[in-house]
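Input sequence (102 aa), recorded before submission:
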Amino acid sequence: MKNKKNPTSYITLEESNDFREIARLMSEDGDQINHATARNILLSGISDLLKGTGNRLGKKMTNKQIEAALNDNETYYSLQEVLFGVKQLLEKEGYKLPTANR
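Predicted structure, token format:
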């Protein structure tokens, strides 16, 4: 995920793991993957999420639109906000979320 201000760098959201760390954690748990595979899995999931959301809203997204969204940092910041809001709601209801940090 390229950073708009510096297109040659990748962003890592605060308090999160980069793809190398995610691959290491998954490999420790028995799923041997590398950082590129971790990134591709995430991008595939976000792509499916965008397609599904578009369909639910009656707007079929083209592959070009999805690719543009995957290359736009706003997509990731928006997703982070939504997931953080869900996390807060779950914790407010007393649900303890598991953590991957070791």
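Checked by second reader. Helices lie at 19-28, 35-56, 63-70, 73-92.
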